């Protein structure tokens, strides 16, 4: 059952989402060749705890870390490790925090130095598709409208849209109804209403959409070992329109990036 949120609950959810945003912004300053993803995990864990929250991923379903860190061909749910990040890598960092009883959960794929042009384009299109999906998160539309917008934008460029992993409702629990696939038919699925809160998260592959689930029970890689990109925002529907609870602005401030991509989805409430 979908749990629609009140405006007071949405204010609390924005605080938890923004803490995740600040955590990713802090990590953006540290991500560079030669550092380990275990180091990033420790930084994120301590930052979240220092701000009065709990890492949402740590212990969730037995997951042993505070971050999911997925380099290159890893799609999602990668384990932090002692392996050093290298020039030319891409690194998906998925972070969650529990604050005031609500979960914030979102992700960004980072470029490490100079990456291949075809990989950079993959990241660009995947992030564009996130906002294409958010545009459809309007009262009266349906979840399938979000899914179709993401799929159409990515498949136009012949990228693989992962089927086995989907976005989801978010709130007091990390995974709530409804599921939000990154593929689907326009006009299908649940009707979007005010108070809906979802995590929209395109997972897009340079090659095939097919993936491999590994024996650790978590790590997912592309079947052809080509790179994957993952971007995620927490979104609420307020007064009939999509409003971002999370932001990439802290990342952009750290990396010196100028962008107005979030402007249409911002609201003070």
H/E order of the elements? HHEEEEEHHEEEEEEEEEEH
Oligomer: single chain
Q: Helix count, per DSSP?
A: 5
N-end to C-end Cα span: 26 Å
Q: Work out the number of β strands.
A: 15
Strands of the biggest beta sheet: in what spatial order? 8-7-9-14-15
Q: pLDDT under 50 segments (min length 5)?
A: none
What spatial form do the alpha-carbon principal axes imply? globular
Mean pLDDT: 98
Based on CA atoms alone, the radius of gyration comes out at 17 Å
- Quote the beta fraction: 15-25%
Helix content: 25-40%
In a nutshell, what does this entry contain?
The protein is α+β, with helices and mostly antiparallel strands and 269 residues long. The protein has five helices and 15 strands. Helix 1 (7-28) runs parallel beside helix 5 (249-255) and helix 3 (117-135) runs antiparallel to helix 4 (143-155).
Would you mind describing this structure in some detail?
The protein is an alpha+beta fold. It has five helices and 15 strands. It has helices at 7-28, 37-50, 117-135, 143-155, 249-255; strands spanning 54-55, 67-71, 74-76, 90-99, 102-111, 160-161, 167-169, 176-180, 197-200, 203-205, 211-213, 220-222, 228-230, 233-238, 241-244. The strands form four sheets. Strands 8-7-9-14-15 form a five-stranded antiparallel β-sheet. Strands 1, 2, 4 and 5 form a four-stranded antiparallel β-sheet that branches. It has a three-stranded antiparallel β-sheet with strand order 3-12-11, with no helix packed on it. The longest helix is centred in the first third of the chain and has 22 residues, at 7-28. It is globular, with a radius of gyration of 17 Å. The two termini are 26 Å apart.
């Amino acid at each position: 059952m979908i749990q629609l949120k009140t405006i007071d609950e949405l204010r609390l959810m924005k605080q938890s989402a923004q803490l995740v945003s600040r955590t990713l912004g802090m990590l953006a300053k540290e991500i560079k060749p030669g550092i380990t993803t275990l180091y990033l995990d420790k930084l994120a864990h301590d930052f979240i705890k220092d701000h009065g929250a709990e890492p949402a991923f740590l212990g969730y379903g037995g997951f042993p870390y505070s971050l999911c860190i997925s380099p290159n061909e890893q799609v999602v749910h990668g384990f932090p490790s002692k392996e050093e990040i290298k020039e030319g890598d891409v690194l998906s960092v998925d972070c969650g925090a529990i604050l005031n009883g609500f979960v914030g959960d979102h992700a960004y794929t980072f470029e490490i130095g100079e990456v291949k042009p075809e990989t950079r384009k993959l990241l660009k299109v995947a992030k564009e598709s996130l906002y294409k999906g958010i545009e459809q998160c309007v009262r009266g539309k349906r979840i399938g409208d979000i899914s179709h917008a993401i799929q159409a934008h990515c498949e136009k460029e012949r990228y693989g849209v992962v089927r086995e992993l989907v976005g989801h409702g978010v709130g007091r629990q990390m995974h709530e109804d409804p599921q939000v696939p990154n593929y689907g038919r326009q006009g299908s699925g649940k009707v979007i209403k005010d108070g809906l809160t979802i995590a929209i998260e395109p997972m897009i592959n340079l090659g095939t959409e097919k993936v491999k689930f590994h024996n650790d029970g978590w790590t997912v890689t592309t079947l052809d070992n080509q790179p994957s990109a993952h971007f995620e925002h927490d979104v609420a529907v307020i007064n009939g329109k999509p409003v971002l609870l999370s932001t990439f602005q802290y990342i952009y401030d750290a990396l010196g990036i100028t962008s107005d991509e979030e402007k249409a989805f911002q609201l003070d409430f």
